[in-house]
Amino acid sequence: MPPEQLTRALDIEVRGQHGGKSYTATLSTETPVFRRGRDGEYNEVLSHDPKAVNLERSPLPLIERHDSDTMPIGLVENIRIVDRKLKGSIRFGSSERAKEIEADVEAGIIRNLSVGYSIDEIEERKGNGTRTLVATRWTPHEVSALAIGADANAGFGRNFKKENKKMENIETLENTTTVADPILAERKRAKDIAIAVRTAKIESSFSDNLINQGTPIDEARTLIFAEMYKRDQAEEKPRGSINVAASRDIGDSRSGFVDQLVQSKGRGIINVARDVLAQAGVSGAYGMSSDKLIKRAMSVSDFTGILADTADKTLRAGYEDEPSTHRQWVSVSSVRDFKTVSRPVLGAAPGLSKVLEGGAYPFGSMDDATSSYKVEKYGKILKLTYELLKNDDLGAFLRLIPALGQAARRKEADVCYDFFAENAGLGPTMAEDAKALFHADHKNITTGGSFNAALLAAGRLLLRKQTAVGGVGLLGLQPATLLVPAEEEHNAELLMAAASRIVSSGLESDVTPWIQSLNLVVEARLPADAAYLIANGNQVDSLELGFIDGEEAPQFETKEGFEVDETAFKCRHVFEARFLDHRGIVKMPIV
Predict the structure, then answer these.
(1) Domain co-membership, 149 together with 166
(2) Following CA atoms 198, 199, 203, 204 in sequence, which dihedral angle do they give, to the nearest 10 degrees?
(3) Which of 18, 232, 296, 573 has a CB 3.0–4.6 Å from the CB of 408, allowing a cystine?
């Protein structure tokens, strides 16, 4: 997982080069910055030992407010450590926005920079009751122009050394410049406060109060910074808002979060929410209560996306795990849309006619032997609320999702096996002749008898003698599947075991060897009064299961609520089943 990118804003000590376009600036110092983390509050210090700062990314881009979506406004070059401070030369670009920012810097309106960095190595140091974490190896990524800094000891406009003084003794330009007119000074104070508040994206009423109360500019900056920190801790981001860099980080680790939730069955959702918010750049994520954490996470699209991916994965797992006897003998097809589709049946192929020397080939047709159907849509919506997440830690929700997948597979089986109960057990009405699937005219139903080898032999005989459309040509169908109700499972196993022993021992028996080659399918949905022999699907059509666009697994969609704290998950399964031809299945009544 890539290291989290942090930022620290501070007033920058800058030495301007008159008449030029380059500015020598202090980018960072060892000034402690207060932070809240997973283990509580602490001061963070960036070590400025030459070995501590990784400058492999130098030169760095100069951007605005850490907004990586915008084009850079300049470049920070010649980055080096001087007197345990990180310094660099700032050169502004030629764009109109770059010129505007440069003009504001020269006018003293924008005084601050903020360094975006990641920490590679850190160690804890304690002293005077204060917990301090020192970054002993860290990497600067970018530098941003800001309105407000955290270090009151340096800043834009505070850049001219007094002669014969050390670098540390720096005075502000405004302190060495006399303002003769108090009215102009007040106007400047009010203007600086208003610009700082507007740049910090704080309500204008906040600047009005500071101006009316006569707050000095330095004190105003401190109050504005405190207000920004307070806002970052309390405000709710718009749903789905996330910066581009964070989105890339989340994308790299998203599958890991999904696997974590799937394997833990939803336990650990609090940790996932915290990590997602931290990677999304939400300050104070590790210090939030679980209550606030979940609510904040529900407003971030990456978090709800992880929940959706987790739900989809568990849905498919439930679908695959559900027993599905119908999939052992039906054929599967892809359907393009919801319109009625026509299928020519394999048993309808016309017989071949003799062609005399030099004679014309006769035409055949399959137009009269087609079956049609259209897919249907099935589904359900589940709502994942903030309260459910908080009270149940996602466990119940993720246990329910695979159950939806299981329900989708069961729905397929229900549709397939419901056909056997139609027309008082004779099956659905066939399109080709408006007769039931199992009908004397179709020659696919035996006389009743005990469930034994003789009954199966009678069913096999009917399959063998099936003819193509019009009664022209024997199909010679080979039985492939023995479909029995649960009540006959034991008897079917005895028959197949006996057939296997006959093959291995060479003994004579009324149980013939061909029975052992059958694929035994036991289905509790079938009525107990019949068993079925089904031909090989490569020879003739039987029951076809069609899925829209070939999507056999159920699909998931999500929708986030705005007025309420909830995410809706919709499960949709689109399919249909239809018997295409009566020739591929024989009913054997059991009495």
Answers:
(1) yes
(2) -10
(3) 573
